[in-house]
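Can anyone check this?
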Amino acid sequence: MTVLRTPGGLSLRWRARSLAVGALGTLLVLTLAVLAVGGGDYPMSPADVLRTLTGEGSPAETFIVRELRLPRLATALGAGAALALAGAVVQSLLRNPLGSPDVLGITQGAATGALVVVVAGGSSLALSGAAVAGGVASGLLIRAVAGRHGLAGHRLVLVGIGVMAMLTGVNGWLLTRAPLMDAARAVLWLTGSLDGRGWAQAGPLLAVLAALTPVVLLGGRALSTIELGDDSATALGVPVSRVRQLLLGTAVLLAAAAAAAAGPVSFVALTAPHLARRLTRAPGPNLVASALTGAALLLAADLVAQRAIAGQQLPVGVVTGALGGAYLVWLLAAQRRAGRI
């Protein structure tokens, strides 16, 4: 760790490895972004993509890039970063490597809200709003069941798993009540998909991310202290209860906004913080590294989903589910070998 003291008495601390991981992560995200914008039925070279982004492309290229591919790219980057930040916050606050909005049932709550709109025949805008409302409502339900003193450790995870199981049953029943065509559209959304995403989905997600990311980053030091234990954090002057409730609420909003834009994409919130910690080898939540990792993961998964089967696009949630499920099995086995479960 390097410490720099300024003339004003402030001290700046950083780890060289964390800075390197952040720089490489940013470069990876930018590279994947150029490849994503250049791919598709109308392929474009990286030079053509950069030329179009600077306003020098043809009218057809400008339309394809700015109106069709950039919204999808923005949705993938925003959803990946939001899910990763939410997962990093939950894992740090619970001090549990299995904590994530997926496991706690937040994304299932968002799915329930969206399915209610599908059954009622609502618009896409209403679906997004209902998804956010459903995610927030499930978070409040988990909070109420867990109680004030249950917001830490395994109790909240167990309550979340119970709520997720309950909402899964509700979602299945709602699907049976929807018209056939609407049910097919809902199943695609429930898998997690970036198909057809426009600025109507990307814009609100990026706005929520821009508003809540500073809150999470400002709470980074408190998160690192809480990881030492509630008693130690309290002794160091951290208002543990208020910080936990504020940051858990922020994580719920981030996960709900991501689900509203891209559907309940699974396992990104779980795996991205783990990969970030392994890359940086630094204690604490590694918030910036987690956000970059989540954005890169979802964007890479979308590229695989578009190219894995010739002539057919898979929902991005299929790719993240397959890779994330394998990672979860490995993580459980590792935790068992270490005697932690």
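Reply from J.R.: I decoded it. The radius of gyration is 20 Å.
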